[in-house]
Amino acid sequence: MVGNLRLPPRGAARAHRVAAGCVLAACVASTACASGPDTAPPVATPSVTVPSGQAPAGRTVDIAYRFAVGPSAPPFAEDYTVFVHALDEDGDQLWTGDHEPPTPTSQWKPGSVIEYTQAMTVPRRAPEGRVTIAVGIHSPRSRDRLPLSGDDMGRRAYRVGSLDVIEKAGTLTIFLGGWNGIEAPDGEQGIEWRWTKGEGAVWMRRSTGPAVLVVALDQPATVFETPQQVTIRNGDAVLDTFALPRGRLERRRIPVPPPTAPGDNLRLEITVAVDKTFVPARVAGSESSDTRELGVRVFDVHLEEDAP
């Protein structure tokens, strides 16, 4: 069954982001955008770790987040969003990786440490070079931001690390049947994705040694009462199956064994299949005119050869 449809329009400026802003209390909100030093007590100290320190353009990487909640932090008034900005050397925003933390902020306690890993997609047209990562916490309702401890770059966005964008490299990937068209509503450097239908197939050249298949996907629409079940296959062989929670960008790393004998077919025929799809225009209460069959959004699918 489906619930209320909350799918962004096809041209909306949104990938796997959520709304911006945040507030904890009236005294905090009053200083969020004020000029001069920010004197509000910080509620947490953020930090991030990028495992390899770099990512090819067009690929999705896992980033480890850590928030050390202050021992005297007041209760969080709502479930806030973590905003993530990737900035060039001039401080201009290149893309975002906003998300809802797996443990909602309403459950964060004073003195606790919140750690988790969240995927982020680097746009295919992102320029090569060093990118600064800034994070913060904001309210999707009030659009105000919480005070944190760290290097405040302005407006409560805190510098926590960097990422080197490198030239995209890897095996050839060809999209076959079962896909909708490419969407990139964020513009020239925007994050791109394709919606599957019931099953979306891709062809790629197979490694002669051990490799890892990487698939990054999400489900942003609130149309299903239970999570979709996703199955990844190579031909008829099931490589992975999992439940996809709504609103979270999922990055799967799936081992792919090498060919078992000389002369084996050196290609993969990967299928991304879901147990249920929807048509936005047919969802009760929806004003959408979109008549496409939609399964899941796929941001990245590629093969990493000689992966550890």
Structural commentary:
This protein is an all-beta fold and 308 residues long. The chain has two domains: 26-166, abc- transporter (atp binding component) like domain (Coagulation Factor XIII, Chain A, domain 1), CATH 2.70.50.60; 173-305, Jelly Rolls (Sandwich), CATH 2.60.120. Helices cover 1% and strands 41% of the residues. Strands 2, 4, 5, 7, 8 and 9 form a six-stranded mixed beta sheet that branches. It has a five-stranded antiparallel beta sheet with strand order 10-13-18-15-16, with no helix packed on it. The chain starts with 25 loop residues before the first helix and ends with a strand.
Structure at a glance:
The chain has 308 residues and is mainly beta.
Can you tag this structure with a few keywords?
5-stranded antiparallel sheet; 6-stranded mixed sheet; Coagulation Factor XIII, Chain A, domain 1; Jelly Rolls; 308 residues; globular; mainly beta; 2 domains; 41% strand
Topology, element by element:
Blueprint: H1 26-29, E1 44-49, E2 54-56, E3 60-69, E4 81-87, E5 93-96, E6 113-121, E7 129-138, E8 151-152, E9 158-166, E10 173-175, E11 179-183, E12 193-196, E13 199-205, E14 211-218, E15 228-234, E16 237-244, E17 250-256, E18 267-274, E19 297-305
Parallel strand pairs: 2-9
Antiparallel strand pairs: 1-3, 3-6, 4-5, 4-7, 7-9, 8-9, 10-13, 11-12, 12-19, 13-18, 14-17, 14-19, 15-16, 15-18
